[in-house]
Amino acid sequence: MSASIFTVKKDVVEMCRRIYNHGYVAANDGNVSARVDDGHIIMTPTGVSKGFLKTQDLVVVDIDGNKVAGTTRPSSESKMHLAIYKAREDVNAVVHAHPATATGFAVAGIPLTQCVLPEVIIAIGSIPIAEYATPGTQDLADVVVRYLNQYDAILMENHGAITVGSDVTSALFKMETMEHFAKIMLVAHQLGNIHGLPPRDVETLLDLRKKFGIRSTAPACTIEGTCEAPPPKEKPEPSSPVQSNLIEEVTRQVMEKLKG
Ligand SMILES: [Zn+2]
Prior knowledge:
- The chain is built from 8 helices and 8 strands; from the N terminus they run H-E-E-E-E-H-E-H-H-E-H-E-E-H-H-H.
- It has one domain: Class II aldolase/adducin N-terminal domain (L-fuculose-1-phosphate Aldolase).
- The chain has an 8-stranded mixed β-sheet with strand order 4-3-2-1-5-8-7-6, with helices on both faces.
- It has helices at 5-21, 78-87, 100-108, 118-123, 138-148, 168-191, 199-211, 241-259, and strands at 31-35, 41-43, 59-61, 67-69, 93-97, 129-130, 153-156, 160-165.
- The site of zinc ion (ZN) has 6 residues, from loops.
């Protein structure tokens, strides 16, 4: 990374504004960091909305979390960010946010692992769900790092999402791709069919990934062997006779009123 600390600080502020404007965070949620040439980490402060952040609000810490510069307190998720930088030398930026649709999948317990969209397979690969741990704890840092050793984008159970990249723009773009993917999967699910790409086409995409020099250790999809969509969920239980009678009665009354 050859950008100056001032340029990277401006990039971080710009990225924070974008995640706020995209609606990926509410209130003071989310945190962003970036590693600069001397190994120090620029971190967003705790308790400041990402939409109103200024470069002077940012904190600079060393890899062990000791403050080097800044007047604010670093994010409550600093441990998680620092653990990621320690584990991944190729990572220079980390974005954590709560984008509504992707987080919905994290709450529903549905990982974004299906091989359905070429750009997602190439840019990110598969997006698993890391198990829940209390925000701000070393436990959460440990769980997240276990996944990010292999993946560049993960969902966090009952919490949100996190992406990493070689710079702030790349980490932000992965967050955007993830949320867009989640929205598309939700629509496809509502339409009643999710058509997975056949393994042959996935292989072609993986070759492209290698050609583009994109980190190839992140699995493209985790559906065993076939990359086909999982079987549809079982149909919901039929309504009980009491429920059915009630629905019929309400429908009859509404129809009566409409006629009248
Ligand atoms: Zn969070």
